[in-house]
Amino acid sequence: MTSAPDNENGKHLTVRCQCGHVSFPTPAAQPSTVFFCHCTECQKQSSSAFGTSAIFPAEGLFPLDRELAARMGVYTRDTENGRSMDCYFCNRCGSRLFHRIVAADGTPRPSVAVKAGCVEGLDWSAARMHIFARSAVVAIPDRCEKYEALPPWMKMD
Q1: What is the pLDDT of residue 96?
Q2: What's the average model confidence in pLDDT over 77-103?
Q3: With the CA atoms of 37, 39, 44 and 45 taken in that order, what torsion angle do they form, in degrees rounded to the nearest 10?
Q4: 0.85 cut: is pTM over it?
Q5: What SS3 class is residue 107?
Q6: Which helix (H) or strand (E) holds 35?
Q7: By three-state DSSP, how is residue 53 classified?
Q8: CA-closest candidate to residue 50, choices 60, 36, 31
Q9: Which one, out of 9, 19, 21, 50, has a CA that is 20 to 30 A from the CA of 81?
């Protein structure tokens, strides 16, 4: 697992949408990992070759503050193996801010994937892992950690 170093002041970072309507602190001062996802869903969501996620604990963000929830919309889609993914976005500019996977039994995952481009001050130096490389439409540098699908340690249930 790739870990980003502590930010300089140890304070939480800020997640902000494109228009600034939605802004909130990250649930922790640093993500547990940052990765590039080349799955076709992330390609569509990002309108690009891949999506970039910074993984944070859900605790501290969920349950969502009432005011924060009122500023966002939620798109829920099915994933593999009977799970669903709640995708949160700004209800003004449409920027996707984060998503959280929910198991088939309704149990939400204890982590949240924040869209890394929305995290102000994120240390990008640790972002070298590429997942779902089998769907990549751009070359992935040889020096990067690469997985055809998910890494074995990235449990999806």
Answers
A1: 95
A2: 93
A3: -40
A4: yes
A5: coil
A6: strand 33-37
A7: strand
A8: 36
A9: 50
Tokens describing residue 3: 């870990």
Kindly report the length of the chain: 157
For residues 117-122, average pLDDT: 96
CA-based nearest residue to 116, from 99, 134, 140? 99
Rounded Cα–Cα distance for residues 101 and 89 (Å): 15
Q: If DSSP codes are grouped into helix, strand and coil, which group holds residue 145?
A: strand
pLDDT at 155 over 70: no
What separation in angstroms does the CA of 40 have from each of 12, 14, 17, 135, 155?
A: 31, 28, 23, 7, 19
What's the pLDDT score for residue 4?
38
- Upstream peptide bond of 63 is cis (omega within 30 degrees of 0): yes
- Name the helix (H) or strand (E) containing 69: helix 66-70
pLDDT over 70, % of the chain? 92
Partner residues linked to 129 by β-bridges: 35, 145
User: Residues 6 or more apart from 74 whose CB is under 8 A from it?
Assistant: 86, 87, 88, 89
